[in-house]
Design brief:
It is globular and about 60 Å long. With 235 residues, it is mainly alpha-helical. The chain contains 9 helices and 6 strands.
Length: 235
């Protein structure tokens, strides 16, 4: 399974703190769910994350108010705090949501006064909710698309689409939680940098919609396992 993980990570272990945020958001969002250090070590070892890096990242998550830890016999179990759950819930629709916005509007206001949307020029932004004045857009000029998705983001998105397509072709029939987590993590890193706009707002060469379709299929093939309190002793 490590070879499949390497397709997405290029053989480089993900940042441990960031991966743990993904793990808790994907597996432990329910207030009754706790993950032991043993479970986390088993999940992250196939990603190349070392035990000492795991311990350091858990300490940082506690310090930053993301998780709380309790002892259960010889095991330490970790759970999201309310702050951690709020942060994870806020990102959830972008990561897992199947509903893609369809409305697209040009907001025009004084430079610096824009409150929402993707700023494309001083006083101009693209947004999914109507502005005042009401300026809906059916087509988006090339120069606006380039501002929504500049070359570096376009390149990262299309490279990710290549990797996720290669992974989809090679996915084995059995499920693997570590692979699911790497998929969620790499997608999370990309999609949270991408403006939440309809597909037509992006350049014609942008392959984000293709990548999103592969993500939906892969997460269906790799369902989220149950890590409820009853399985706290699970290695």
């Amino acid at each position: 399974m490590s070879s499949l993980i390497d397709i997405l990570t290029d053989g480089r272990p993900p940042r441990t703190w960031s991966m743990l945020v993904t793990i808790f958001g994907d597996l432990a969002l329910d207030p009754g769910t706790r993950l032991t250090g043993r479970t986390l070590a088993a999940l992250t070892a196939p990603m190349g994350i070392r035990p000492e890096a795991l311990r350091t990242a858990l300490h940082r998550l506690r310090r930053d108010g993301w998780i709380e830890s309790t002892r259960h016999g010889r095991l330490t179990a970790h759970a999201l705090t309310e702050f951690g759950r709020d942060q994870s819930r806020a990102a959830g629709p972008r990561i897992y949501g199947a509903d893609i916005p369809t409305g697209l509007y040009l907001h025009v206001t004084e430079p610096g006064a824009l409150q929402e949307g993707c700023v494309i020029a001083p006083g101009l932004a693209l947004a999914t909710t109507p502005g005042d004045p009401l300026l809906p857009l059916d087509t988006v000029p090339d120069w606006m698309q380039a501002r929504v998705c500049p070359p570096d983001l376009l390149g990262q998105t299309n490279a990710f689409a290549d990797r996720i397509e290669a992974l989809a072709r090679r996915l084995e029939t059995e499920t693997d939680t570590s692979l699911r987590l790497v998929i969620v993590h790499e997608w999370r890193r990309l999609v949270l940098r991408t403006p939440a706009l309809p597909d037509r707002a992006f350049p014609e060469t942008w392959r984000g919609a293709e990548a999103r379709a592969h993500i939906r299929a892969l997460l269906t093939a790799l369902p989220r396992p149950d890590y409820s309190t009853s399985s706290i002793e699970q290695p």
